[in-house]
Design a protein that fits this description.
The complex is a heterodimer of chains A (about 150) and B (about 775).
Chain A: E1 2-8, E2 11-17, H1 23-30, E3 49-52, E4 55-58, E5 71-73, H2 86-93, H3 103-116, H4 122-128, H5 140-152
Parallel strand pairs in A: 1-5
Antiparallel strand pairs in A: 1-2, 3-4, 3-5
Helix pairs in contact in A: 2-5
Chain B: H1 20-24, E1 40-46, E2 52-58, H2 60-63, E3 68-73, H3 74-78, E4 102-103, E5 109-115, H4 118-127, E6 129-134, H5 141-144, E7 160-168, H6 180-187, E8 191-202, E9 211-217, E10 222-227, H7 232-243, E11 250-253, H8 269-281, E12 285-288, H9 291-297, E13 301-312, E14 318-330, H10 340-346, E15 357-365, H11 379-397, H12 401-408, E16 417-418, E17 424-425, H13 430-441, H14 443-455, E18 459-468, E19 485-491, E20 497-501, H15 510-522, E21 529-532, H16 550-577, E22 584-587, E23 590-593, E24 596-602, H17 603-611, E25 625-630, E26 639-648, E27 655-665, H18 672-691, E28 723-726, H19 745-760, H20 775-782
The chains are: A alpha+beta (about 150), B alpha+beta (about 775).
């Protein structure tokens, strides 16, 4: 077992983890932050996307021990002072979700997308979320949601 | 009295979903988010061969591992769990949740581990050693029908799960077949289009894999089961039956469910095992499916091979259709497996006047994952076969594909329309949908664009498809579970409204649409309404969400229950207002006498009076709560037209969808925003089937497409912006006039994309291309080979 310490949603979390435990399982099972989801086991679907040190990353691609010392933001930590993040607002306004399972990962991926490119074209948005699968929406309302956030920020 | 704000009417408006705040903030609870004190984890040892006798299962090493609570082989599970039931009246071979002596598909469970956590459970699974005596794998469906290379279930000769079932013209209710009409139709045809078409196997792949938590409480003798299911009430019925409990001792909960697409209708072995193991050990247990596991363990969809013959006159008049279908259903019958292909024969009449139809279906066992419902479930297959054949006919006759359709449409005056294959279409105006789609797509201009592109050497094609589907399932005669839906509406003491529905949404947004309906019905704020679903402990009765039935059947039950409560509340209000109950109106949060809103009483005060009725009006009981079961008299038949434009890269064969125009008619709409979302999602799956999705098995029966690395589900980059529109032809089947829309997108998109691709490559002499449209396949056609 290994000791880790990381800042998750602004709070320092110290824990003992089995070295083989992926970051996503650490967040979900040990910290009980279940907003981050697991939709595959090959790092394709992106449902587990979180922010690691300010960049979107699939939390199934690293072990919890590798995130030692990192600053993590999950979907639970995205709103500030009770105010929805513009992307959360955008997804709500534009019906950017149906079952909601891919949504946290989709939103966390879009955070970096808009950080890197504050006014993306539709094509750039579609390319930017290619690492995130959604089976419900056909993506059109997700594109609208990200455009909404880009305009309203 | 207090002045109330004027409340807007919400039905028909694009109301933002009330489900979303929890979902966009990571505050929803899906099955795998549930943790109970003392809960242990289940994992399954699965067969890694397609067909074999089990020689031995050695669980000693697994049992010795720290943290392992129990290990059960199939034979041990069989001691406390009966074979799995199915939900159709077809004969079915014995199917154990965990295989006892023979495995019949790669991925079939052979042993169960119960352990401290998911990682120990997985380690223990890996420590189980199974030895097999291999049997020949039955993979090719047409070979399987001849009993080769072997027979999977001895009681089913030639692997025929369901031997040829005929439907259509000349087939009587008792199954007698008279060929004269169909023979005569083909005899008078000028030409017959004949084509073998593959409607390939697909993996439904809801983003949330399945999962279950079962908690048997020995002290109470009750079971609570949380499952990622589309129908908790059906789950309750089956779990009760197999655990020997009464339905009143089982509480089934569908918490937040991350998509279903038909694959979460079935009641699975993992659910039975979790319940039975929890009961046996007296502890709560959880099982969560991995994605790779889902590809083998969750039912697949489609996989129907069709031999299509379409007979017509030279002027384009269709005179007859023969559809010979062979369904590869995999290794076992699941809940609805055997019934799905019969929906394909049922919908063979499509949107056309076809005087003679013969549709037959044969269902065949193979050593593959079983099939069951997948979005559209039988209707996309029917649409695909007929619409592709219509497209081939148009090409043969050098007719515009739209004009060929127009010439053959069932006319609005013909409804209700009894089809040759046993359906009674409720209402329709197919030409209107076609014309709207042609107008929106600017069909003539698109054709000119296509021709111009071709002149420049580009490979561009156009495809058009009509569809009609069967939704709002359905009368109880058509469903073994019963086809009604239930709702209970309660006006609480404070005037807030709680309503239950037996529909079990998993993305469809019924908390929003149903609240819109009740807000209008009672003239109260949307925010004052709560819709409860997905918990048999709260929702007294229900069937569930599938077959695009939530609005048409569940919504109607809600409306009926609301009407009953409203009638009673009117009586209490009439007593307070000293008026006649027929003269009171509900609006803007008050109940008043018609024509004198100032006289009104706040809605909440009438509710309070009903719960402390002093004096109690004569003939009334206290309280405001009532329920309704809605039994539809018929299914509904939504329809539409999908048009697509595709370009093929001449160098690589890669197809790109340039344009998709859809006009869908689902009758009256409660929330067009949600309807658009449903159609978008359906289109994505329909296009996915045409272009990139395909479950592939090798000759040994091994699943080749067993992960997201090998099975392509569509990504955002795969689509253009869809262009939607609607025509509105209400159904007379329910008072809402709503037909259902959940599956629509999967119907027309698939054939329209394939037809567009054939059109793009028509210069190479190709008449049909089987899905999926793999670039290599298209490249070969471009290189001069045939498909």
């Amino acid at each position: 077992m290994s000791q880790v310490s990381m800042t998750v949603n602004g709070k320092v979390r110290k824990a003992t983890v089995d070295p083989r435990v992926l970051l996503v399982y650490f967040l979900r099972d040990q910290l009980r932050l279940t907003g981050t989801h697991i939709g595959c086991d090959t790092s394709q679907c992106g449902a587990c996307t979180v922010m690691i040190d300010g960049r979107s990353a699939k939390s199934c691609t690293i072990f919890a021990v590798q995130a030692d010392g990192s600053e993590i933001t999950t979907i639970e930590g995205l709103a500030t002072n009770g105010q929805l993040h513009p992307l959360q607002q955008g997804f709500w306004e534009e019906h950017g979700l149906q079952c909601g399972f891919c949504t946290p990962g989709m939103i966390m991926a879009a955070v970096t997308l808009l950080k890197d490119n504050p006014s993306p074209s539709e094509r750039e948005i579609r390319e930017g979320i290619t690492g995130n699968f959604c089976r419900c929406t056909g993506y059109q309302h997700i594109v609208n949601a990200i455009q909404h956030a880009a305009t309203k920020r | 009295m207090a002045v109330s704000p004027v409340l807007p009417k919400l039905v028909g408006e694009r109301v933002k979903r009330r489900e979303d705040p929890r979902l966009i903030q990571g505050r929803a609870t899906y099955v795998d988010d549930i943790a109970l004190v003392g809960m242990q984890y289940i994992a399954f040892k699965r067969s890694d061969v397609a067909h074999a006798r089990i020689r031995s299962v050695d669980t000693r090493a697994a049992e010795a591992m720290d943290g392992v609570e129990a290990v059960f082989t199939g034979a041990q599970v069989a001691e406390f769990l009966a074979p799995m039931p199915i939900g159709t009246p077809f004969p079915s071979p014995e199917h154990r949740a965990v295989a006892v002596d023979t495995v019949r598909f790669s991925g079939e469970p052979v042993a169960v581990v119960v352990a401290r956590d998911r990682f120990v459970a997985r380690d223990a699974v890996d420590a189980i050693v199974v030895s097999y005596d291999p049997l020949p794998a039955v993979v090719d469906v047409e070979l399987a029908m001849t009993g080769k290379p072997t027979v999977i279930h001895p009681a089913f000769p030639n692997n025929l799960a369901v031997p040829l079932v005929p439907a259509g013209t000349g087939v009587s209710a008792d199954g007698k077949v008279d060929d004269s009409a169909i023979d005569e139709a083909f005899a008078r045809a000028d030409l017959v289009i004949s084509q073998r078409m593959v409607n390939q196997r697909l993996a439904p792949t809801a983003m949330e894999p399945r999962g279950v938590v079962a908690h048997y409480e020995p002290g109470k003798g009750t079971m609570t089961i949380w499952s990622s299911t589309q129908n908790p009430h059906i789950l309750r019925t089956f779990i009760a039956a197999l655990t020997g409990l009464g339905e009143n001792q089982v509480r089934a909960i569908a918490p937040e469910v991350g998509g279903g697409f038909g694959a979460k209708i079935n009641i699975y072995g993992e659910e039975y095992v979790a319940a039975a193991v929890s009961k046996r050990l007296g502890i709560p247990v959880k099982w969560t499916e991995d994605r790779s596991e889902a590809f083998v363990a969750t039912t697949h969809g489609r996989d129907i091979l069709g031999y299509v013959d379409l007979a017509a006159k030279r002027d384009g008049t269709v005179v007859g259709l023969k559809l010979r279908l062979i369904a590869d259903i995999g290794a076992y019958n699941m809940l609805l497996t055997a019934a799905i292909p019969t929906l394909t024969t049922m919908m063979a009449n499509a949107t056309y006047n076809i005087p003679a139809i013969r549709a037959t279906v044969t269902e065949v066992f193979t050593n593959k994952t079983p099939t069951d419902a997948y979005r559209g479930a039988g209707r996309p297959e029917a649409t695909y076969f007929v619409e592709r054949a219509m497209d081939m006919l148009a090409r043969e006759l050098k007719m515009d594909p739209a004009e060929l359709r127009r010439k053959n449409f069932i006319q609005p005056s013909q409804f209700p329309f009894a089809t040759q294959t046993g359906a009674v279409y409720d209402s329709g105006d197919y030409e209107k949908a076609l014309d709207r789609a042609l107008k929106n797509a600017q069909w003539d201009r698109l054709k000119a664009e296509r021709d111009k592109a071709r002149a420049e050497g580009r490979l561009v094609g156009l495809g058009l498809s009509m569809y009609v589907e069967v939704c709002g399932l359905g009368p109880s005669a058509a469903l073994p579970t019963g086809g009604w839906e239930h709702s209970q509406v309660t006006i609480e003491r404070d005037g807030r409204i709680s309503a239950t529905t037996g529909a079990s949404p998993h993305g469809q947004g019924n908390e929003t649409t149903f609240a819109q309906m009740l807000a209008d019905q009672f003239g109260v704020p949307f925010e004052h309404i709560t819709i409860l679903h997905g918990d048999t402990g709260v929702v007294k009765q229900g069937i569930g969400t599938f077959g695009s039935r939530s609005q048409a059947v569940g919504g109607t039950a809600l409306h009926m229950a609301g009407s009953k409560v409203k009638a009673k509340m009117a009586k209490f209000a009439a007593a307070l207002l000293e008026a006649h109950e027929d003269d009171v109106v509900f609006e803007n949060g008050t109940i008043s006498v018609k024509g004198s809103p100032a006289s009104g009483k706040p809605f909440a005060s009438v509710a309070a009076y009903a719960y402390r009725p002093v004096p109690l009006p004569e003939g009334l009981e206290p309280g405001l709560s009532d329920e309704a079961f809605f039994e539809p008299s018929n299914n509904t038949y939504p329809f539409g037209c999908h048009i697509s434009m595709v370009e093929i890269d001449r160098k690589t064969g890669e197809p790109t969808l340039l344009k998709l125009v859809a006009v869908d008619d689902a009758g009256n709409l409660i929330n067009p925003l949600i309807v658009e979302g449903q159609i978008h999602g359906g289109l994505a799956q329909g296009i996915g089937q045409a272009m990139i999705e395909e479950v592939v098995y090798n000759e040994d029966g091994q699943l080749v497409t067993g992960s997201f690395m090998d099975y392509a589900i569509p990504r955002a980059i795969d689509f253009p912006r869809f262009e939607l529109d609607a025509t509105v032809t209400p159904t007379p089947v329910n008072p809402l006039g709503a037909k259902g829309v959940g599956e629509a997108g999967t119907l027309g998109a698939t054939p329209s994309v394939v037809s567009a691709t054939v059109d793009a490559l028509s210069g190479f002499g190709v008449k049909h291309i089987d899905m999926m449209l793999r670039p290599e396949k298209l490249w070969r056609i471009i290189q001069g080979g045939q498909s």
